[in-house]
Write a structure and sequence with these properties.
- By secondary structure, the protein is an alpha/beta fold.
- The chain has two domains: 256 residues, Aminopeptidase (3-Layer(aba) Sandwich); 79 residues, Beta Barrel (OB fold (Dihydrolipoamide Acetyltransferase, E2P)), CATH 2.40.50.100.
- The protein is built from ten helices and 21 strands.
- It is globular and about 70 Å long.
- Bound molecules: zinc ion (ZN).
- Zinc ion binds next to loops.
Length: 471
């Protein structure tokens, strides 16, 4: 097939077979001539490829060799045992939050982090969801917190343990010490997401990675790692996965959003370590550091529920995007000069060749400005939020759409921003409740309404010292 043709791809996934094992065959009704069940129309999703023919071939071959996600131990007819994590036991049909120490210490802080295990009453895959591996990235912690809210885990709600087949383990903030410091890094200055699988006698971060990997994450069948952009940038909601790894390919597509970047994870990352151990793994990127944006959180929550539905861990049909864009090549647009950056576009903006993406002005030379121009038709998957730039600073992550710009343009809002699947619905964790307004008598004694804001937020978010948060 020529490279520039979007192909039709079957949505039916191998994992759809998992359910078949346990379901008893319907008994044929009495002598009546059997009605043949109406053939279900096979739904298709358009798939646009922005990747090399060689890589496509490699992915196709890997998927062809892969038959099914079914494993005997997930058979619904076999009994469900307790789930054990760090010698703590969670019984079938139970949800339990465990405190797990990241480090062995005799004196000092052992860095306990909460891990919630929702252990279904029936067998199935173990799916681990992690957030905050970079301590200042709040999309993951926010999405995990919504997933654990009572509107999700109460009886008859989407994550009711009694309706679950398998085990869901949610770790809202892996790097809790970094989160407390409002920093991406661990207290010893290292990036936890470059230290996996870790060493028991290694540096502090490496020891934590070792414990997390061996005692917690290794026992997963699937892993969803939730991230956002680093400080000074903001990401459009997107999935990253090694599409030539069949288990990861399935999870990435099941997440149910349009843009999937085919990428091999960096050395020492949790994703790379997980894939090497046969765990189907994807990372989600949405929003920016030190910030919670509603759309990114909502897409993350929807995506996790979609994966759980696709794997038949929870009941219900996953939602699908109208099309998928599987892409490989992306480039950073960089500042040619130093100065103050004025972005003309944002994350998920669709741009045309020659369009101005940003302008840099130099306070030392008023009147002189330099434009940064889109090198082709494309989608901005990440843009800078920090206005300070020097020559070479990345200002935008550009995904060229040489062949499929029209497909993307068919799903734009009035600001030429790409609309991500799942971002427009009502948030699933919110319920419509009637609100009673109450009025309190008396004088306001807190001073000016924004007085606290002015004194508490004196820090510079770029340096990570955002001041104390108002609770
Ligand atoms: Zn991250």
């Amino acid at each position: 097939m020529p490279d520039d043709e979007p192909v039709e791809e079957s949505v039916e996934m191998a994992i759809a077979d998992v359910d078949k094992v346990a379901k008893p065959k319907p008994k044929p009704k009495r002598k009546k001539p059997q009605k043949r069940p109406q053939k279900k129309a096979k739904k298709t999703i358009r798939v646009a490829h922005e990747m090399s023919a060689d890589r496509r071939k490699e992915i196709k071959l890997a998927l062809k060799e892969h038959e099914s996600e079914h494993r005997d131990e997930w058979d619904r007819s076999s009994g469900q045992k307790s789930h054990v994590i760090m010698r703590k036991r969670v019984k079938p049909g139970q949800m339990r939050t465990l405190m797990v120490n990241l480090l062995d210490v005799e004196i000092g802080d052992a860095w306990p982090i909460p891990i919630t295990v929702i252990h279904g009453s029936r067998p199935g895959p173990v799916v681990t969801i992690t957030g905050g591996i970079h301590g200042d990235e709040l999309t993951g912690p926010s999405a995990c917190t919504h997933l654990l809210s009572t509107s999700m885990t109460d009886p008859e709600r989407p994550l009711d343990p009694l309706h679950i087949a398998g085990t869901i383990r949610i770790i809202p903030i892996i790097n809790l010490p970094g989160y407390r410091n409002k920093s991406r890094y661990f207290p010893d200055g290292r990036d936890l997401n470059r230290e996996f699988p870790g060493r028991i006698k290694g540096n502090t971060t490496s020891r934590v990675a070792h414990r997390l990997w061996h005692d917690v994450i290794k026992g997963s069948d699937y892993l969803i790692d939730l991230h956002s952009a680093a400080k000074g940038r903001i990401n459009m909601p997107q999935v990253r996965a090694n599409l030539a790894d069949p288990h990861s390919n399935i999870v990435a597509k099941a997440f149910g959003i349009e843009v999937i970047l085919d990428s091999k994870p960096p050395k020492g990352s949790l994703r790379r370590t997980a894939i090497n151990a046969g765990i189907g793994c994807m990372t989600y990127e949405g929003g920016g550091a030190d910030n919670i944006d509603h759309e990114s959180t909502q897409v993350a929550v929807n995506g996790v529920l979609n994966v759980l539905k696709s794997l038949h861990v929870i009941p219900g049909n996953p939602t699908r995007p109208r099309f998928r864009l599987l892409a490989q090549g992306s480039t950073w647009l960089r500042a040619g000069e130093g100065g103050l950056l004025d972005m003309w576009v944002g994350p998920s903006s669709v741009v045309e060749e020659g369009e101005i993406v940003a302008t840099i002005s130099d306070p030392a030379h008023p009147g002189l400005t330099v434009d940064i121009i889109a090198p082709g038709d494309g989608l901005m998957i990440c843009t800078a939020t920090n206005p300070h730039v020097s020559a070479g600073t990345p200002v935008g992550h550009f995904l060229p759409l040489s062949k499929h710009a029209e497909l993307i343009r068919s799903q734009l809002d009035e600001n030429n921003m790409f609309i991500i699947a799942g971002s427009e619905d009502e948030p699933v964790w919110r319920e419509e409740v009637e609100v009673d307004e109450i009025s309190l008598e008396g004088e306001w004694s807190g001073g000016s309404v924004d007085a606290e804001w002015q004194t508490a937020f004196t820090g510079d978010s770029e340096s990570g010292e955002a001041g104390s948060r108002i609770s």
